[in-house]
Each structure stands twice: as C-alpha cells, then as structure tokens.
Specification:
six-stranded antiparallel sheet, five-stranded antiparallel sheet, 1 helix, Jelly Rolls
Length: about 160
C-alpha cells in the first residue's frame, strides 16, 4: 500500500500495489483493518456502491461527521473532492482524481469535505466505506457547476438527478 498526501489537507490518495494476476484474472485486497490503522484511526461501519452509466454525474455531497474511503470496483470515474469547512484555510478548494478498476487508487476523505464523481465508462461501480451510518448527519450538497468553485468537469451536459441539478 502506497500512501500519498494530496493538495487538500487530510485527503489521502492510497494505491493498492498488491495485485496478484494469473491466467484466471486478478486478486486484490481493497481493505485491511491492520494496514489502514497505520494511516488513520477511522472505523468504518457501512459499505455502499452505486452503479452508473457513462455521463452520469453524482454529487457533490458530504456531511460534518463522516469519513469515506472511495474506490472503483469496475469501470472508471472522475472524482472531485471539495473542502466545505468554512473555518479551514482551504475552504472551497477542490482536487480531482481518476479512479478505475485497473489503477487501484483509493481516496480517503475526511468529514466536512464533499465529493462528486462523473462516470467515464458504462456500468461503472463506485464503492465507498463510511465511518457513520447513512443519515446520522445532515448532508450538504454543493452545485456541481457552481461558478465560485469553478470545478473542471470533462463533460458539458452530464446526466443529473433532481437533487444535483
């Protein structure tokens, strides 16, 4: 496991470098409590996935108390993480990442950060572990194309839910 800091304080990029391949396919570990204990003391309590078609943009959502560990199980997506803590010097700053089933990248996101993703391939599986159960904290939504945030998205007309419009 390779751990890298990102430009956003508290957000970590984790690369799962242990992949075992043979004639049947491949095997990789996506989470090991002992290894992650060296990175963070976060305890995860819930796992979720979303499956989406190419062109779907989900988010930007977050809350004040939940850590998330995000990975891509199948396909490929463009992930954006935004600092939404008005008391932090990096408030409203964002960073983007490409996650795919082949690059083995995970992003650890602390509370008070929002995340959204644009699906780049059909039937992409977005996976995330959460440190709280869904609904324990009020969620916030940031507009994906808010001119104040000025986020670059590699799409002009994404497929959006009513909430994300």
């Amino acid at each position: 496991m390779i751990i890298k800091n990102t430009k956003l304080d508290g957000v970590l990029k984790i690369i799962q470098d242990q992949v075992f391949e043979d004639f049947r396919g491949y095997y990789r570990e996506t989470y090991n409590k002992r290894e992650y204990a060296a990175v963070s003391s976060v305890e995860f309590v819930q796992d979720d996935i979303s499956v989406s078609y190419k062109g779907v943009l989900r988010g930007i959502h977050g809350d004040s108390g939940t850590w998330k560990l995000i990975s891509c199980l199948k396909g490929k997506f463009y992930l954006v993480v935004v600092n939404n803590d008005p008391t932090h010097s990096q408030y409203r700053e964002w960073e983007s990442f490409i996650l795919s089933e082949s690059n083995n990248v995970q992003i650890l996101i602390p509370p008070k950060f929002g995340n959204g993703h644009l699906v780049l391939e059909d039937n992409t599986i977005f996976h995330y572990k959460q440190s709280t159960y869904y609904g324990e904290y009020d969620q916030f939504t940031l507009k994906w194309n808010d001119p104040i945030l000025n986020i670059f998205w590699p799409v002009n007309n994404p497929i959006l839910s009513e909430r994300d419009k």
